[in-house]
Specification:
This protein is mainly α and about 100 residues long. It has one domain. The protein is built from 3 helices and no strands. Helix 1 runs antiparallel to helix 2 and helix 2 runs antiparallel to helix 3.
């Protein structure tokens, strides 16, 4: 029997990744990236989300229950780290540390 895995990590992480890519594209298309470091922070969060998606996908496709469990835990950890990164970006924007 296949182990129970969290399919929601892959869906949510990929949606957040798309949002991060939209933000990065918007910043670059408005030529705002020359005066702001927000795109670097957002790019770092996007990279973490990419790896979260990869580990989550691997956990869903793996036939080995131990590998699936470990991959799922790594995906969860990376997803949580990305959420903390988004929180930091929002706080920095709120207090106008980065503009």
């Amino acid at each position: 029997m296949k182990p129970k895995t969290s399919k929601h990590i892959l869906n949510t992480a990929s949606n957040l990744l798309g949002f991060c890519l939209f933000v990065i594209t918007s910043i670059h298309s408005s030529n705002y990236s020359a005066t702001s470091i927000m795109d670097e922070f957002t790019s770092a969060v996007a990279l973490i989300l990419v790896f979260s998606c990869l580990f989550s996908f691997y956990s869903l496709r793996s036939s080995n229950p131990d590998r699936a469990y470990r991959s799922e835990k790594i995906a969860e950890l990376l997803f949580g780290l990305a959420l903390v990164g988004i929180l930091v970006i929002v706080i920095l924007l709120l207090f106008k540390v980065i503009v």
